[in-house]
Amino acid sequence: KLHSDLDKGVGTVKYTLSGDGAGTVFTIDETTGDIHAIRSLDREEKPFYTLRAQAVDVDTKKPLEPESEFIIKVQDINDNEPKFLDGPYVASVPEMSPVGAYVLQVKATDADDPTYGNSARVVYSILQGQPYFSIDPKTGVIRTALPNMDREVKEQYQVLIQAKDMGGQLGGLAGTTTVNITLTDVNDNPPRFPKSIFHLKVPESSHVGSAIGRIRAVDPDFGKNAEIEYNIVPGDGGNLFDITTDENTQEGVIKLKKPLDFETKKAYTFKVEASNLHLDHRFHSVGPFKDTATVKINVLDMDEPPVFSKPVYTMEVYEDTPVGTIIGAVTAQDLDAGSSSVRYFIDWKNDADSYFTIDATEGTIATNEILDRESTAQYNFSIIASKVSNPLLTSKVNVIINVLDVNEFPPEISVPYETSVCENAKAGQVIQTVTAADKDLSPAGQRFSFRLSPEASNKPNFTIHDYRNNTAGIETRRNGYSRRQQELYFLPVVIEDSSYPVQSSTNTMTIRVCRCDSDGTILSCNVEAIFLPVGLSTGALIAILLCIVILLVIVVLYVALRRQKKKDTLMTSKEDIRDNVIHYDDEGGGEEDTQAFDIGALRNPKVIEDNKIRRDIKPDTLRFPRQRPPVEDNTDIRDFINQRLQENDVDPTAPPYDSLATYAYEGNGSVAESLSSIDSLTTEADQDYDYLSDWGPRFKILADMFGEEESYNPDKVT
């Protein structure tokens, strides 16, 4: 209820309400200020509401007092039962657990207010599952209530748990859940045979390693606790059999370890022990976790094939033995009561089996062809024996025949040796160690002996030393050898074996004389030794030589053509000599050459005909200076050339045949006039060249040329 001090009860005050739930959950009487709930409240949905109230003047609509805020709390009542949010539960506990063994903890949740009253106080109890399990009323922990609960008796338990609020008092609300509890297995039971004696019947023809029977011990445990291991107790007959465990069925599988023979023994008796593989020490007091049973096996008589006296027959025969020679025999018997006769024959597989024959009745083996040890040293084939009374019953045996060697081949040097001796070799020096080989099969202790042939024993060059271990050394018998005198030496060596009859051979060794250094290292032997390492064949060498010859022929032809062209340029006819230009490829000596080429030989055409060899003739030092009148001003090139042509025509030193003269016309008009000495009227003898010495070392050669009058040789500039 809301009330303002300004409200005189005359209806001049109006009350208003705003905030959470105003108008929907709560309403207010505008005249009296009473607040009412217009629908039911749920604390678990909304525990409190915040509202604002105000008193307003009815006439002016203005607030009489400031707005006030207040909270309405919803008081809890016990309207929610406890709930197991994680249920139903599944749990397990080992069988044979003691009382109080922990199983599982359950928890129930109550939505009521735990701070107000006992509405949320939960108490746990078991409605179904006693007397096997118990639960703590406060914590909800489930434990075992009975000792030695056996899984083999009962494995699954369903327990009904109740959670009640109000502390379990009358009127409280309750919720339930189910807990499914499984007893897990422990190895608390030993294996047991359902009977003490097992009888088995086994045919004597059973193969070794085959299963001949099964026995089983029962273990009520589960999984690895029920795994059983079977063993045969040592005793009578147990050594012929073996037993293993079938992992899928946990049965003992009895297998045959050795062949059975009805005629030898008709029955066997032994004991089998069954035990657990995984033991639990907590149950050792119960007793031994194993059991034993007796197994009796009766051997059944069967019609069996013949049996050979040996598993494998090994025989020996010398090579070249005559055809039809008996080298051995095989024997097979019928051990059955009827004792039938036996027939023998060779199991043909390849052509090698045709080298031997067998007597069908006696089983004797003889040669059918001439044997050669060097071709085949061993023969391996099978012989089949069958019963006359039942030819389908056969047995097979392997026969190995070794062909013995007859000494028919002489020993020889094992590998071809390339023996060399140094020119500076000393006497007694070993230059080669040789070994021998024999195609025959050498028996133990056979030795090879080495010696020189009689014709080589007296020669003073080389000898052989037998080391008595199937090797020998080639030794020198003198100091020094000369390649120029003799390059190759041939040494005949006789090799004998120790077998009977004795075989020997003469092997000729080639010894090459080589040039060596002081340490004995070979430097060179001969031309062949140089070319041999190249590894070229004879055809390749011939091709290379042909290429070289072709190149030489091409070069010779080229040189001949060049000379022929030079000869064609020289005309021996006097009439044609002036119509040709003769080229001379002579080079001058540069600045050091003060003697110019003598062209005197060109003045006489006879010199070319009489003597083709060039002759250098030093010309006379006295020359008539050529008069070169100055060129008139404004003369053209034609006048200049005509003037020079007339000068050459009257020149007594000009050659008597046509020649080429080159002039460099500089032209006129220079204020300083021409600087060239060509047009100078003065002779070179009047010039003083001493000032060149003052120009430094760079002009030393020029100063020497013009400074020495005797070495100066003026030439005409053309």
UniProtKB/TrEMBL annotation:
GO terms for molecular function: beta-catenin binding; cadherin binding; calcium ion binding. SMART domains: CA. GO terms for biological process: adherens junction organization; calcium-dependent cell-cell adhesion via plasma membrane cell adhesion molecules; cell migration; cell morphogenesis; cell-cell adhesion mediated by cadherin; cell-cell junction assembly; homophilic cell adhesion via plasma membrane adhesion molecules. Keywords: Calcium, Cell adhesion, Cell membrane, Cleavage on pair of basic residues, Glycoprotein, Membrane, Metal-binding, Phosphoprotein, Repeat, Signal, Transmembrane, Transmembrane helix. Residues 4-84, 85-193, 194-308, 309-413, 413-531 form the Cadherin domain. InterPro entries: Cadherin, Cadherin-like_dom, Cadherin-like_sf, Cadherin_CS, Cadherin_Y-type_LIR, Catenin-bd_sf. It holds the Pfam family CADH_Y-type_LIR. The chain crosses the membrane at residues 530-561. It is found in: Cell membrane. The keyword Signal applies. GO terms for cellular component: adherens junction; catenin complex. The keyword Glycoprotein applies. CDD domains: Cadherin_repeat. It is a single-pass type I membrane protein. PANTHER family: CADHERIN-12, CADHERIN-23. This is Cadherin-12. The lineage of its organism: Eukaryota, Metazoa, Chordata, Craniata, Vertebrata. The gene is Cdh12.
